[in-house]
Amino acid sequence: MYRKTIEILILFMISTVLAGCRQKVCSTSPAVSAPANQLAEQLAAIEAQVESTMKEWNTSGLALAVVKDGKTLILKGYGKRNLSTGEPVTVNTRFYLASITKVFTSVLLAKLVEDGKLTWDDTVKRHIPSFAVNDAYFTENLTIRDVVAQKSGMGPHFDDPFTMGLVQKNLPYTLENVLEFLKTAKPLRSFRQEYGYSNTLSFLMGPVIQAASGSSWEEYLKYTLLDPLKMNDTGPGGDYYDRMKNVAIPYVDGPEGEPEMFPMFQDPRSFFGAAGSLFTTARDMDSFLKFLVSGGKGVFQNAESLASLEVPQIFTGTNHFGNPSWKAAGLGWDMNDHQGVKILSFDGFVPGFLSIIIVVPHLKLGVAVMINKGISLSHMTTALAVVDIVAGLKRRDYDAMFRNYFPKPPVRKVDPNSDKDLAQYVGTYEISIKGQLYTRQIFLKDGKLYMDNSGSLLGPPMGPTRLFPMANGTFFSKIADLVVYFNNAENGKMMKHVHSKETFEFKKAD
Length: 510
Fold this sequence. Notes:
ten-stranded antiparallel beta sheet, eight-stranded antiparallel beta barrel, alpha+beta
């Protein structure tokens, strides 16, 4: 769910090919309408691509679903869901979808539009009367379309004051808390003139759905979409997480490059309702892809209702992975030219989980990739490569191409003897940017130094980030490829923050 961080964007039957697949680990369908030799070549190429990508990006586990012409081309798990136990990823392993949840939410809104219970141009205030920000025109005129197309002017989320405010005060994402913080918020960009990603406004689409349908977002999702599509292993995280079985463990690179579990689920702030709370499996995503390429059969009365999500709402430039000639945001979809072909896509990201869904409407092709190792772009490289293979487009080396955007982080060595007095760094550090105050909490836990990396300058809330000593006063975190320098200056203790070539200087507040 935490996409487009600074400015990490963070942005897929033949027995000889699939020999050794265990029951429930992989499955394929011979019913895909392609010649047998072409199908064999496609499957072999996909297998080779996945193997190569997992090696290049040191991926723990990966789940893949590919649908063509309404049929399953490939449905398979690769690698491990749990490195400690050696348990494999299967087609029934649950992964965190994060921001791809927004695609599901947009589908639900389209259904309510078809049923006449709301329109895309309804104001948010019509369905949430207490909604208000510190801008009267914005408050009265913000529409559902503005929010879903991410053109409200409130983003981008890396300096979204609402997200940061809630997280810093350790408050859950409830409607009451979100509305309270929105009251003092002001748009950061021109209304409807620029793309700006806001998780907080996207969260409000859950209460909008509840107001229009009479059911909570979770209930409406279940009986409108999940039950008809038999997506029995898909649902929100948060309180539901502890009851899930066969869940992929999230991993990031440890201090010296080794895989390390990322404990995101210790923090209930990680879940954002309609904006990014869903877990799912490759098998369920196979069903969802078939639904999407069919025009919404089984849920919508008219294919046009689902197709309305594909209409560009705001163009977002061409500076994007793969060098498209155009890129735009629709209603819950990103879309762009890909080698002359229009594709719809959306990705999700939190440390330890990467996911992406791509649909090529005119080819009735859908691809879903879910990975339990990040931060990287391996989900994107896999998905785009699969699209090229199945669509018969020019093959590109996306792993090499995307390494230009996301180079391998340097291997830094931990020096446990470099700092003995970690307590001297503990405290609250502040910086003011564009009139907005940002803070960082530095604290000790079990004798180790942590930073509460809660949104804003480093993007989304990632929870406590371990700081490893590498020299006196200098620490690093592999999770965010972050280096932190502490020093004493005449005007008080300072903390310098270097991330993705961006440098920020914080002053100690206490």
